[in-house]
Amino acid sequence: MKDAILILTGGGPAPGMNTVVGTITQAFVARGYRVIGLHGGYEGLFRKDFEIENLDFKKADNIFNRGGSYLRMSRFKPTQEDFDNNFNLNLFQDNNIRLLVTIGGDDTASTANRIAKYLVSKNYSISNIHVPKTIDNDLPLPANTPTFGFNSAKAEGTHVATTVYEDARTSGNWFIVSVMGRSAGHLALHVGASCHYPMIIIPEMFNKTQITVEKIVKLALSSIIKRKVMGIRFGGIVVSEGVFHELDSEELKATGVKFTYDEHGHPELGKISKAQLFNDIIEIKLNELGLKVKTRPIEIGYDVRCQTPIAYDLMYCSQLGCGVYDLFENGETGCMVYVDTTGKASPLYLKDLQDPQSGKIPPRKVNIDGDMAKAIYKHIAQYITEEDYEAAKEFVPNPQDYDFEKILNW
Fold first, then answer.
1. 359: helix, strand or coil
2. By residue range, what is the domain housing residue 340?
3. What angle do CA 104, 106, 108 make, to 5 degrees?
4. Per-residue DSSP letters for 221-273?
5. Predicted confidence (pLDDT) per residue in 354-394, tens digit
6. Is residue 359 part of a domain?
7. What tens digit of pLDDT does each residue of 180-190 get?
8. Domain check: are 211 and 165 in the same one?
9. pLDDT for 131-151, tens place per residue?
10. Are residues 82 and 213 in the same domain?
């Protein structure tokens, strides 16, 4: 029987998933391996009715430049009981699988290690190599290397935000644009800066003060008032969804916005539009101040995950796929594939990235003190400063409350 490899995809999609799968398939098939695709992510390894299919050159050639994931994904995370009672060991034995390739985030990588250790305990030797992906760009790859899918998501998000900004200019409205990114504000910052939005709100900017609803609203109003001082009646505010996940539950309830709640009484943020939430909160404050400003919510999230990858990710993901074969050929296992700016593939080991206490990989945050972020907030963002106080009194009696640097304690 031919040696085989098994490929699965976990978590949520990112542009370039199929490029990685297609490239790996071509590389291994060309060298006599059987390539098996597993549908359903890890769930497929713990169900009797698992679904697999052979991947060949024709399928690889057909999918490599498509968005989405040809191999259906899931966020299934096996428990110890699943390992004890439901693991499909025969899938590996019957198909002579020598390598497990997983494509996903840090949870997917950690589970791959658990599976490899479990198989070793059953006297089945197997290599495992992980390909890290996320449009959030929050995995700590060396030299600030982006995660695959980020640049494609940024390109599409910028396209949407640019169109929205033109609508704001045309209609004289303000648009509140929420951008996906639960742990870090990379996507929001890059999209907002690419479109020259006058305010971009990300979790990392609250490095010297606590995130509160009041401060988020004041940052937005700082930009709106500044534009009024400048004689500009339209604009846009980009806000990262991550800021809402760091807010206190009681404070969210006090906003007056209607939520559904989980069994612990916490607002279920995952079920609502963050743009709609932020828009509703801002409208309440605008009405209190008597400022006549029309705001409209726009969400950028699920619509950028399955788009066609741009050239950057097509090339990058092809390199990652090639890297998987090269690492396997060199005997590497229990690692993630990393490709540097010269195109060299090398292994990254989870133990070198994980927090020794929690075992989790800490997210890579935006460097708010770095040159890029400083330049964006110094030259592109627009907000109230001390020089604007006198002119801003035409619109609010207390302009110092909307001073950007005072709000953030910068």
1. coil
2. 4-148+309-353
3. 50
4. HHHHHHHHHHT---EEEEEETHHHHTS-HHHHHTT-----B-TTS-B-GGGS-
5. 777 776 788 899 999 999 999 999 999 999 999 999 999 99
6. no
7. 998 899 999 99
8. yes
9. 999 999 998 899 999 999 999
10. no
Model pLDDT for residues 241-252, shown as the tens digit of each residue: 989 878 777 777
DSSP H/E element including 102 = strand 97-104
Say whether 136 is catalytic. Answer: yes
Distance CA 105, CA 139 (A): 8
As a whole number of angstroms, the distance between CA 226 and CA 172 comes to 15
SS3 125: coil
Structure tokens at 92: 């590996």
Residue 296 · residue 235 · CB < 8 Å: no
Three-state SS at 141: coil
Domain count, the chain: 2
Q: Are residues 49 and 11 in the same domain?
A: yes
Q: Is residue 358 part of a domain?
A: no
In single-letter form, the type of residue at position 401 comes to D
**Cβ proximity of 177 and 161 under 8 Å:** yes
Structural tokens at position 163? 């169109």
Same domain, 155 and 144: no
Whether residues 135 and 186 share a domain: the answer is no
In a domain, 363, yes or no: no
Are residues 81 and 182 both part of a single domain?
A: no
Instruction: Give the strand order in the sheet containing 174-179.
Output: 199-201, 235-240, 174-179, 295-300
User: Do residues 209 and 403 make contact, with C-beta atoms less than 8 angstroms apart?
Assistant: no
Q: What is the phi/psi pair of residue 361, to 5°? A: -90, 115
Of 106, 136, 138, 403, the catalytic one is: 136
pTM of the predicted protein model: 0.91
Helix axes 311-329, 150-171, angle to 10 degrees: 160
pLDDT(257) > 80: no
| 361 within some domain | no
Indicate if 197 and 160 belong to the same structural domain.
yes
